[in-house]
Amino acid sequence: MSHSAYAGAAAPVRHRAPSERADFTIVQDWAGYTADEHDIWRTLFRRQEALLKGRAAPEFLAGIADLGVAADGIPDFRRLNDVLGRATGWSIVAVPGLVPDAIFFEHLANRRFPSTCFIRRRDQLDYLEEPDVFHDIFGHVPMLVNPVFADYMQAYGQGGLKALGLGALHNLARLYWYTVEFGLIETPEGLRIYGSGIVSSKGESVYSVEDPRPNRLGFDLLRVMRTKYRIDDFQSSYFVIRGFDELFDATRPDFTPYYAELQRLGDYEPDTVLPSDRVLHRSSTA
Ligand code: PHE
Ligand code: CO
Predict the structure, then answer these.
(1) pLDDT of 286 above 90
(2) In the chain, which end has fewer C-beta atoms inside a 10 angstrom radius, N or C?
(3) Is 241 helix (H, G, I), strand (E, B) or coil?
(4) How far is the CA of 15 from the centre of ligand 2 (A)?
(5) 224 vs 61, 238, 264, CA distance in Å?
């Protein structure tokens, strides 16, 4: 689940009933999934599991291992929540699709992650324009098992509510995009993926860490919040953190003065490289 980033697209009607609740949540109706839908999940899961060995961050792989229930088919959120709740106090709530920004942030600020329930069709295994249950659960939940990342996501929700009030959501949304969705991390073994938009994508799992074309730039908070992003193709730049503590520490201060400064500073195109950027070579840390 993301916010304001994706345009709506055609998707199965089942599991997409609009919510009648003020917080936009629905009931997952786990018993209502067909055998074919569970099979699509398993196909995606096995494919990504194989691709992500040696490419995903150890924290992500540990999260997947902890969430053993997710290997058999589309997980029952109730069972997932037992594991997740014990680990970090987070829970998954079911929503029909994108929810308004304020609602999304309110959930995160309370350690609830809004997840879609529908799964893509078989002809959409490689690419889908909007988040489905595979992206939302396989992509996001493993990192929510990590205590530092779990706190980061909650802080992001609180910061989102504030940014909304300050008219700075476009800046904050870029931070989410380049970290939560498309973040890379440097490890002693080399570059690794932690962004959910990458780990749930077959093509980008390889492209982001191995292709010579995209820029891989050292994470810099204001730089990231000035950088536009593309939602219709692989990223042309990735921002690389040195560790989750770096991310958590950089985002701890009050952003209010940053937003005022960002209003004066211009935006960067997604493929810009600046003299001040720390440019990482694809194999520099391997
Ligand atoms: N510290 C940020 C603020 O004051 C909130 C935030 C935390 C935003 C973590 C993103 C990530 O707005
Ligand atoms: Co997402």
Answers:
(1) no
(2) C
(3) strand
(4) 18
(5) 26, 10, 15
The backbone region for 66, taken as left when phi is positive above 0, alpha when psi lies in -120 to 50, beta otherwise, is alpha
**Tokens representing 24?**
């936009």
Residue with the bigger pLDDT between 204 and 4: it is 204
The residue whose CA has the least distance to atom 10 of ligand 1 is 156
Residue 5 confidence (pLDDT) above 70? no
Q: Which ligand is nearest to the CA of 225?
A: 1
Cβ pair 199, 60 in contact under 8 A: yes
Residue 244: closest CA among 183, 188, 196, 199: 183
CA-nearest residue, atom 5 of ligand 1: 159
Q: What is the pTM of this model?
A: 0.94
148 contacts 245 by C-beta, under 8 angstroms:
yes
**What tokens appear for 40 in the block?**
């699509």
Q: Which two tokens stand for residue 132?
A: 């489905």
Taking the centre of ligand 2 as the mean of its atom positions, its distance from the CA of residue 275, in whole angstroms, is 31
The answer to whether residue 7 scores a pLDDT higher than 50 is no
- Point out the ligand 1 atom lying closest to the alpha carbon of residue 163: 12
192: which residues sit within 8 A by CB, 6+ positions away? 55, 56, 57, 58, 60, 184, 185, 186, 209
Q: Atom of ligand 1 at shortest distance to CA of 162?
A: 12
Q: How far is the CA of 56 from the centre of ligand 1 (A)?
A: 25
Query: Of 186 and 3, which is predicted with more confidence?
Result: 186
Distance 252 CA to ligand 1 centre (A): 6
